[in-house]
Write a structure and sequence with these properties.
This protein has about 325 residues and is of the alpha+beta class. The protein has two domains: about 90 residues, DNA Primase, Chain A, CATH 3.90.580; about 200 residues, no CATH class. Helices cover about 35% and strands about 20% of the residues. The protein contains eleven helices and 15 strands. The strands form three sheets. Strands 1-2-3-4-5 form a five-stranded antiparallel β-sheet, with helices on both faces. Strands 6-7-8-9-10 form a five-stranded antiparallel β-sheet, sandwiched between helices. The protein has a five-stranded mixed β-sheet with strand order 11-13-12-14-15. Strand 4 and strand 5 form a beta hairpin. Helix 3 crosses helix 4 and helix 8 packs across helix 11. About 40% of the residues are buried.
Length: about 325
C-alpha cells in the first residue's frame, strides 16, 4: 500500500530527471524548458507543470509525467492499474541514474551587467535637432499618422538619437516602460537601412513600448515591433486596450502574468510569417502551462507580412487617434 508520505515525496523529484531517463535532452526557452525527440515534444514550466505538444496532453508533477511517459496513459483518465504501475516505478526511481542526459555545467565568468543608463549614453544619445529627419522617416517612409507620432514624442516615448559608434546615422528610439511607467529599455531603429538597422537595449522581458495605459486597460494586444504597434493603433480600434511591442516574436511570461492578474483578454497580433506563427504557438504552450484556467489568447494576423505593410497598403486617411 502506498502511503501519503511516499506519494508526497514524489513531488520533489525533478521532472528533468524523469525526462532524462527516457532519453530526452533539455533545451532552455526563456522561463520554460523543452524536451523533444521523434515521440515527444514536452515543455516544462518552473511551477512543475508540463505539456506534450505531440500528444496534446499535459499535467502537473512526477506522477502525471510518469503516467504519460511510461504507461502511455492520459493522467486525467488513467486506470488504477496504470496509477499503481507509475507509483511503483517512481518508488524505485533514482534521480541521476540510467539514460539521463544533462546539460554540461560550464563555469561562466561573472561580468558586470551594463546598466540601461550606460547603454543609452553609448547607443541612444538623444538629439532633438535630428527629430525632423526622424519624424520624416516615421510619417513618410512608414506612413504613420502624424497625430500619434506627435503624441508619442510629447510623452517622451519616442525621440531622435544617434550612437557613439555611428554618429552619422540618425535613429528613432522607442522607449520601453514597465507596468509602473518607468523607462527600463528601448528599441532603436535607424532611419536608413544598413548594419545594426534595429536593436534593443535594457529590458524587454518586463518593459515594453506601449500605446495605452496598462494601469487602466481592459485588454491587451501584443505585436512584434514598436512600428507595428503604432500601425495597429492606426488601423484598428484600440479604445481601452494596451498595445505592447515585444521587440521580438515571443510573448514573455511577464506579459501572461500581467494578463492573468488584470484579467485582460489577450490578443497575439504577431507577423504573418513563420517566426510570428512560431511565437503564437509558443504563447499557447506557455499559457496552458502557467495559467491553464485562463481564457486562451486569440490570434490576429495582418493581411500582409506585418501591420505596417497593411498600413502602407491602405488609403491615407485622417486617423485622429488618441493614445
Amino acid at each position: 500500500m502506498n502511503s501519503p508520505s511516499m506519494i508526497g515525496s514524489f513531488r520533489d523529484i525533478p521532472l528533468g530527471s524523469i525526462l532524462g531517463q527516457f532519453g530526452l535532452s533539455p533545451r532552455q526557452e526563456g522561463a520554460t524548458t523543452r524536451y523533444k525527440n521523434d515521440q515527444f515534444n514536452i515543455v516544462v514550466s518552473p511551477n512543475n507543470l508540463w505539456f506534450d505538444n505531440a500528444a496534446s496532453i499535459g499535467g502537473r508533477g512526477a506522477i502525471d509525467l510518469t503516467l504519460h511517459l511510461k504507461c502511455r496513459a492520459n493522467p486525467r483518465l488513467a486506470s488504477e492499474t496504470h496509477l499503481r504501475e507509475a507509483i511503483a516505478w517512481l518508488a524505485s526511481f533514482q534521480p541521476g541514474t540510467g539514460t539521463e542526459v544533462s546539460m554540461p555545467q560550464v563555469a561562466k565568468p561573472a561580468f558586470p551587467k551594463e546598466t540601461f543608463a550606460s547603454q543609452t549614453a553609448r547607443l541612444s544619445i538623444r538629439d532633438d535637432a535630428r527629430w525632423p529627419m526622424a519624424r520624416n522617416y516615421l510619417l513618410h517612409s512608414r506612413r504613420l499618422p502624424d497625430d500619434l507620432v506627435g503624441q508619442l514624442y510629447e510623452r517622451k516615448d519616442i525621440y531622435a538619437s544617434f550612437s557613439q559608434t555611428r554618429p552619422e546615422v540618425t535613429c528613432v528610439c522607442f522607449v520601453h516602460r514597465n507596468l509602473e511607467g518607468q523607462p527600463r529599455g528601448a528599441t532603436i531603429r535607424a532611419t536608413t537601412p544598413g548594419p545594426g538597422f534595429a536593436c534593443s537595449i535594457g529590458e524587454k522581458a518586463t518593459a515594453w513600448f506601449t500605446l495605452g495605459n496598462p494601469r487602466n486597460a481592459n485588454r491587451a494586444i501584443v505585436v512584434e515591433a514598436p512600428i507595428d504597434a503604432i500601425s495597429y493603433a492606426a488601423l484598428k480600434k484600440t479604445d481601452g486596450a494596451v498595445v505592447a511591442a515585444m521587440s521580438c516574436s515571443h510573448v514573455f511570461p511577464s506579459v501572461l502574468q500581467a494578463a492573468h492578474e488584470r484579467r485582460w483578454p489577450l490578443t497575439v497580433a504577431f507577423d504573418n510569417d513563420p517566426a510570428g506563427n512560431a511565437g503564437w504557438e509558443r504563447c499557447q504552450e506557455t499559457q496552458r502551462l502557467l495559467y491553464p484556467h485562463d481564457p486562451p489568447a486569440r490570434r490576429m494576423m495582418p493581411a500582409a507580412k506585418d501591420w505596417n505593410d497593411d498600413l502602407c497598403a491602405a488609403p491615407r486617411r485622417s486617423h485622429g487617434r488618441r493614445l
